[in-house]
Protein: cyclic-guanylate-specific phosphodiesterase
Organism: Marinobacterium stanieri
Amino acid sequence: AKEAGRNAYRFFTNKMNVDVMDRIMVRNSLLRALERREFVLHYQPQLDIKSGHIVGVEALIRWENPDIGIVPPDRFIPVAESSGLIVEIGRRVLQEACRQLKAWQEEFGLADFVMAVNISALQFTRGDLYEAVSSAIRESGIDASNLELELTESILLKEADQALEVMSRLRKLGVKMSIDDFGTGYSSMAYLKRLSVDKLKIDRSFVKDIDVDSEDAAIAHAVISLGHILGLTIIAEGVENEAQLAFLHAHGCDQYQGYYYSRPLPAAECGRLLSKN
Ligand code: C2E
Ligand code: CA
Ligand code: CA
Ligand code: CA
């Protein structure tokens, strides 16, 4: 068990390939983390560009490991996915995000506020995503229209039939949908129309040099125009400075999130920002 712990430690702290044994140990440590409730959510504000008001938050998972400290999602989500544990982790994320939203609404109002939650492909294929989402909404008592699921283009392509069916049932409940990392996958216009999503999120790889790289600028501009033609809200992620924000504002982007305004924050700190909003 000690050896297993060391290997898991090695895995989560180093960038390296893992063999089958490592994967088993890592899976076990994720299971233990679930049991011990070591997964927590941080929240990053999403702002309306014109008004500067916070209009929502994205929930981002962290693992607070008593030995290692805070483990970022890129370190364990891939293993959670390959081991299937993401289904249970994702279920907890939905419950906690909805519960937190309800608590903030009771404190601050926030009637039109959006809680955005990241969804993995496996939650569509192996988990009952409809059941997980609808029970999180029901148990927390939030309105479905305040919940938004962030899906990637690859989910929608790979799991097209299953995803479309589940999405349309969730849309009937009133849940919102957004496409994450937009521009990095293969969405076509026809496809976007068929999906009936609400929002596109411009990937941060295009935002990074948006004010100096003419190709990135052109891509961002095209996404904004295309999205607006289809009646969608456009949000940019990874906004780190004033120049990027100014470009996005000038080109009609609706919302942004990024370190420029705030890093993802623990619930209590995020709540302090919401109280001043
Ligand atoms: P993502 O959904 O694309 O989330 C955005 C990532 O960018 C977050 O990293 C966020 O902290 C980071 N970020 C925000 N603003 C800035 C900025 O201005 N500059 C830079 N350089 N980065 C910024 P994080 O929290 O480490 O999450 C990484 C990925 O892990 C997420 O990418 C998402 O794919 C996944 N993830 C996070 N939480 C969950 C979850 O609850 N479920 C699932 N399935 N995946 C999750
Ligand atoms: Ca996301
Ligand atoms: Ca993203
Ligand atoms: Ca990403």
